[in-house]
Specification:
By secondary structure, the protein is mostly helical. Helices cover about 75% and strands about 0% of the residues. The longest helix is centred in the first third of the chain and has 34 residues, at about 105-135.
Length: about 500
């Protein structure tokens, strides 16, 4: 822990750096909590401000926004049922129902604590195992990436255990939607129907805002739900300490998933939280409680998406390869000052690298403190009369949809998916498999086509390469296990009805 202690001391001894990281964390929490305004947007807007700062001070501001943006997404997910960022999609599934049951403080407390654990834990891993993991990553090829994506797609069966056929239909719909636009290899236009805006594919953020924001607002307004009775009392941490012990394996597993997914280039926290949530549901003794306010789901989602922060920083610092869209901007922030991330950065700029370690840890602490300070304030959003709250949320949704690409066509995408979400609810089709399929489908296609190009069309390397073979075995085991559990669940339900 000596390296991390030295990094923390280096940051704390510079008051202006502490001010910048605090400012960044506040900005990030605001951007994360407002639907449509992500950590990526916050870092992009702040990037020009770093021109006038030295590299260390510039990274203080940007890292504060990064950590705050990912951490703050759970606030809107908990209170409004709208993911503040794609990294908080799975948080909506249980945090919002728990909030509607009159326990928003508990949901927020679990989210804040889980976010802190994920960020701090991944920072420690970044400090001590980054070079080791970087060496392993260099050996991964499209064959391993393909089987990893296939392995992740098998989780659709887990997410749809109660309604397997509807869940699979939802997953395949997501894969189909993900194929819209220019093919990743070959540049062929697919399913654009002559509409030029569709050549770039569907905007994930507009899609999410349509399904989770516009649809939710419309349905709640139509049903005219009463304002829930909110318990604003905060006792201790807001939840029992025993819950951490009860969820110990869930937390560790979700952390490892988030760290690994964050580390893989192009994946990021948006995918990590869905996979960790699916694993938590698959391994739970009471999977039927998921989606109805299960704390296990909140722990899994928020630990994993924040663990992805440190995971995404590993390839950026050690290989010069951004792990996600935010680290791509951080990479640009370093290059502005003439610094090239990679192995030589550790040799030429050890002070900067250590300051980044310290900034990540301090940002985690600041976000935890800010979330707990606002624990009594945030839930009051639920007591605002709906005729005041809904127009504001609608405006923010449209602004967020436009801000992601500066493209008005995304308004129509958002409204279309609001309708799709309503139709899926009527058909009792789960949303999470569709989102997972939409994210993973293009990644699987791109890496699969690359792998087959390298092997001249041969499928043999998928079995002969050890890592690929292990991942395929895990995928098959996951599918078989899901089928067995589904059969048991159906037999149990049939026994009860008899």
């Amino acid at each position: 822990m000596l390296v991390l202690a030295q990094a923390l001391q280096m940051v704390i001894q510079q008051p202006f750096m502490m001010v910048l990281v605090l400012m960044g964390a506040v900005i990030g929490l605001v951007f994360g909590a407002i639907p449509g305004l992500t950590a990526t947007t916050g870092v992009a807007l702040a990037l020009p401000l770093t021109f006038a700062l030295n590299p260390e001070m510039g990274m203080a501001l940007l890292i504060g926004i990064y950590v705050g943006g990912i951490s703050g997404g759970f606030i809107a997910a908990t209170l409004l049922g709208i993911p503040g960022t794609p990294a908080s999609i799975a948080t909506c599934f249980d945090a919002y129902p728990l909030s509607q049951q009159g326990q928003p403080v508990k949901a927020l407390a679990i989210g804040a604590t889980a976010s802190f654990m994920g960020t701090l834990g991944s920072t420690i891993c970044l400090v001590y195992i980054a070079p080791i993991i970087a060496n392993i990553a260099l050996k991964l090829s499209p064959f391993e990436y393909s089987t990893l994506m296939f392995c992740a797609l098998t989780l659709i069966a887990t997410l749809a255990r109660e309604e397997p056929f509807r869940g699979l239909a939802s997953g395949f719909l997501g894969i189909l939607l993900g194929s819209i636009g220019i093919a990743p290899i070959g540049s062929t236009l697919r399913f654009t129907f002559g509409l030029v805006p569709l050549s770039a594919g569907l905007n994930l953020l507009a899609m999410i805002l349509g399904i989770f924001a516009i649809k939710q607002i419309s349905v709640d307004y139509a049903e005219d739900k009463p304002i829930p009775l909110v318990d604003l009392e905060v006792k201790g941490l807001g939840f029992r300490l025993g819950e951490i012990v009860d969820n110990a394996w869930n937390i560790v597993r979700s952390f490892l998933i988030g760290l690994w997914i964050g580390f893989l280039p192009g994946m990021g926290a948006g995918l990590a939280n869905l996979i960790a949530y699916a694993q938590a549901k698959s391994s739970s003794k009471h999977p039927e409680k998921f989606g109805k306010g299960a704390p296990e789901g909140i722990w899994a989602s928020e630990v994993s998406n924040n663990a992805a922060i440190g995971g995404a920083m590993i390839p950026m610092l050690t290989l010069g390869i951004p792990g996600d869209s935010v680290t791509a901007l951080l990479l640009g922030g370093l290059m502005i000052h003439g610094l090239i991330p990679g192995p030589l950065l550790y040799i030429k700029q050890p002070r900067l690298v250590n300051s980044i370690f310290g900034l990540l840890a301090i940002s985690a602490v600041i976000c935890l403190v800010l979330c707990y300070l606002g624990m009594r304030l945030f839930p009051r959003v639920l007591t605002i009369p709906r005729h005041y709250l809904y127009p504001v949320l609608m405006v923010l949704s449209f602004v967020g949809s436009f801000a992601s690409n500066n493209y008005s066509f995304d308004f129509w995408i958002m409204l279309l998916f609001a309708l799709v979400g309503m139709l899926m609810d009527m058909a009792k089709m789960p949303m999470s498999p569709m989102i997972l399929g939409f994210i993973l489908g293009p990644m699987l296609e791109e890496n699969l086509r690359r792998a087959l190009t390298y092997s001249a069309g041969s499928w043999l390397p998928f079995i002969t390469r050890p890592v690929s073979a292990v991942l395929l075995a895990i995928a098959v085991f996951s599918l078989v296990n899901s089928v067995i559990k589904m059969r048991r669940h159906q037999a149990l339900q049939a026994g009860k009805s008899a």
